Amino acid sequence: MNTLILLPGALGNVNQFNSLKQELSLVQANVITLDLPGHGFNPYATEAVTVPEIADAFLHQLHELEISGPIQLFGHSLGGYIGLYLCLHHPEKITG
User: Fold this and answer.
1) Rounded Cα–Cα distance for residues 86 and 55 (Å)
2) CA separation for the pair 59, 89 (Å, rounded)
3) Residues contacting residue 30 through CB under 8 Å, at least 6 positions apart
4) How far apart are CA 27 and CA 35, in angstroms?
5) Which of 10, 35, 47, 63 has the greatest number of beta carbons closer than 10 A?
6) Please, are residues 17 and 6 in contact by the beta-carbon 8 Å criterion?
């Protein structure tokens, strides 16, 4: 089953995707909402301040959560920048 991760923007949190996540329950995918490292309710990597640092902390968080294989990623604002960065620098991790 595909994994789709929803990433909010800077200073946002996973709650902003509650309605979207409910709608996506109709899709055959494991839909997960994660705060960006150091943002929202996620204290993970509180020192991450640049896009490469946040992306690396995000990849580390995926490893810690045992989310393996390529993922699909939807990002709003800064979450979108992280997604684009990951597509460019870690294309083996992202399918769309």
Assistant:
1) 7
2) 12
3) 1, 2, 3, 4
4) 21
5) 35
6) yes
Report pTM.
0.87
> Using an 8 Å Cβ cutoff, are 4 and 31 in contact?
yes
* Residue 21, token pair as written in the block: 């996540």
pLDDT given at position 10? 85
Encoded amino acid at 16, one letter: Q
Instruction: Tell me if residue 6 falls in helix, strand or coil.
Output: strand
Mean per-residue pLDDT of the chain = 88
Give the position of tokens 């329950």. Answer: 25
Angle at the Cα of 79 (from 77 to 82), degrees rounded to 5?
120
DSSP run (H or E) holding 74? strand 72-75
Q: Show the tokens assigned to 80.
A: 């979108």
**3-class SS at 5?**
strand
